[in-house]
Records
---
Amino acid sequence: MLTIGQLAAYAGVTVRAVRHDHKIGLLPEPERDRSGYRVYDTAAIVRLIRIHTLADAGVPLARVQDLLDAEPREFAVAIHEIDETLRTEIRRLRDTRRRLACLAAGDHLALPRSVVAYLDRLRGLGVQEPYIERERDAWIMVAAQVPHLIEAVIAEKHRQLDDPDMVKLYGFLRGALDWPADDPRIVEIADILERLRIRAVRAGAVDGDGFDDGLVNLLDSVVLESSPGVERVIAILEERGWRGWTRIERVPVDRLEPGAG
C-alpha cells in the first residue's frame, strides 16, 4: 500500500496534482488507514499515469474521464479524433507563425510574390518609398478583393513597364509627392498618361477591368490622397475626354488626340 507522496513519485507528478485529480473526479478516492491517511494500490498508479499521459498529449480534461473508462475500440476512435483536432491546430499555429514572420518582411505581408517582385522593380527604377507604400496598400486591397485576377493584372503591369513613357512617368516619382497643383510637371504627367491610355485602349488593355465599383472607388481614393497634384492631373485628363483612374473610360470630345500619330 502506498501513501499519496509515494503514489505521486511513482507516477511522476506532484502531490498537488493527485489531490486535484481527486477533486475533479478523475482519480477515485481510496480507502484510508486508521490514522485517516489515503492509501493507494498499484492500480491507482496505472490510472494516474494514464490520466496525465492523456492530459499532457493535449486531451481536454473533460474527455479524459470518458477515455479512461472506454472500451479499446472506442478509445482508439476517440484518440484518432483528438489527433485530427491537434493536427488542425498545429497547421493553424504554423500559419500564424508564417504570418508573424511576414511582419518583419514589409511588402510580403498579405501580398503574393508576384506583387512583391513588381514593387521591387519599381524600386529599381528609383521610385521612392512614400509612393511604394501607397502602391503596396492598393495592391493589398486588390489581392484581398480579387485574388483570381492578381496574376493577370501584375503581368499587364510588367508589360506596361516595358513602355518608355511608363518608365518616364515613374521617373517623376523619384522625389517628393507633395507637388502643388500648378507645378509645370503636372501637365507633362497628364500628357504621358494620355499617350499611355490611348495605346492601352487601342490594345484592348483597360485597367480596372473585372473590379467592382466599390473597389474602383477605393483605389481611386488612394491615388487622390497620394499628392495634391493628382487631382489636377485627373482634371486635365477629363478635359481631354478621359474619365476615371483605376477604370478608364473614353468620353467623346471635339479635339485631336495628342500623340495619336
---
Amino acid sequence: MSNKKRSTGTAAASEASKARAAKLAEMQRQARRKDRRGAAALWVVAGVLAIALIGGVIYAGVARSRQMDAALGDVATFPNMSANHVETDVTYEQTPPVGGDHHPVWQNCGIYDTPIKSIHGVHSLEHGAVWITYDPSLPADQVNKLKGYAGQTFMLLSPYPNLGSKVALSAWGHQLKLDTVDDTKITAFIRDYRQGPQTPEPGAACTGGTSEVA
C-alpha cells in the first residue's frame, strides 16, 4: 500500500472518530437538557403543591378563626374605662370588674384557689391579662379544666362570689359570661383578648406585683 493510500485511510478513520465523538457529545447534551427540563418540571410541581398546601392550611385557619369570632358575639363591651391609680376600695359597675380605677400594684398572673382583690386584678387587665373567674361552687373537675386554660402567661384564674354565672372571662373593657367550662368561646376569648388590642398598657408586666388574696 502506498503512503498516499495509508494517509487517506487514516484521515477517513480520524473523521469517522470525530463524527462519532461529536454525535456522542450531542446525545449527552440532549440528555442533560432533558434532565434539566425534568428537574425544572419537578420543582414547578413541588412548588405548586407547596403553595396549595400552605393555602389550604391558611384557609382552614382563617375559616376556623371566623367561626370562633362569630361564636364570640356574646362579648359585652364597656368603653371609656377610667384607669386611675388609687389606694382605696373601688365600687365597680361590672361583676367581676373589667376596668376602672385600681391599685397601683397589679396582681401577679397565675392560678388562685381563693378570691383575689379586684383592685389588683383590674390592674392586671390593664396590662393585657385575661381574668377567668368562676362560681365558688363549681365542681373540682370543672375547675381543673379552667386551670388548663389558665396555665399560660398573662392569665388570672380565681373563684368569685356572687358571679351570676358559672364562668366569666374578663379583659380590659370586655367580658364574656358562660354556663359551661366546655365552651369553645373560652379558647376564642383568650386568643383574641390576651395581650389583645384593647390592652391600655401593652408590654407591661404581669409578674413582680402582689400575690395577695382577699
---
Amino acid sequence: MFKHSVLFSVLQIAARSQEKWLYLETHAATGTYDLTGKQSLKTNEAAQGVLPMLDHEAPCPEMVDWLAFVQSRGPEAYPGSPAIAQHCFRPQDRMIFFERHPAEYKKLQAALASDNRTRALEEDGYQGALTLQPRRGENMLVFLDPSYETERDMDALGNWLPRAMKRWPKATFLVWLPLFRDERELEFGQYVASLDYGFVAGTRWTEFSTKESALEGSAIIGLRTTPAMARPAYQIGEALEALWA
C-alpha cells in the first residue's frame, strides 16, 4: 500500500509538468492483482493492509486520488505499478516494462496490449534497461521493485544502480525497500540513499510475526528527486505510521 500510494503521487507530480517522460520498470510483474485470489489469501498481506481501506476514506490528502483509483477497480483488479503508470501518464509519455518470468510476462503483456504508449519486454530488466536511452526532450524516471528474496538481490541492485546513474545522469530513480524485523536491509538502504541527493520515506506496522525474518515495513528511496516528489512520500509514511500504530 505504501509503495503504490507513494508511486502514484510521484507519477502524478511528474505528469503535471511540461516535460515528456520515459518511465521504466526493471521488475514489472503482472500489472494487476486479484486480492481475493489464492495467493493473496495465502500471504494475508492485503487483508492486513489495503482491503480494510476500500470502505474508508484516505488517511491523508496525498492518498485520496490513489485510493479512489483503487476503489474504482475493486479488489479483484488491484492496480500494481504498471497500471498506476498507465493511469497517471499522458499520451505524450512512454512506458517500458521488463519482466523475465514467462507467466507473469504473459499477464503483463495482456494488460498492456491496448496501450500504444507502453512496451513489455520478456528479459532481465537490469541488462535490458541499460541498452535504452531517453529520446531528445524526454525526462527519465526509473522504478526499481526487485523481489529481495536473497542477499544476492540486494547485491545485484547495489551493483546496477551506479552503472545506471552514470548512463542516465539526469534520470530520477525510485527504489522500493522492504523493512525486515532483523534489519537486514539497513546497511544496503544507507548505501543506496548515499548515492545521490533525494529522500528516504517509509513506515512500519504493528508486529504480526515474531520471526526475525518477518517483513514489518516498507520504504521508498528517491534519488535525484524534487522536494515536490518527496513531500507526499513523507506525508503518506506519517499517516500510515499513525494508522498502524
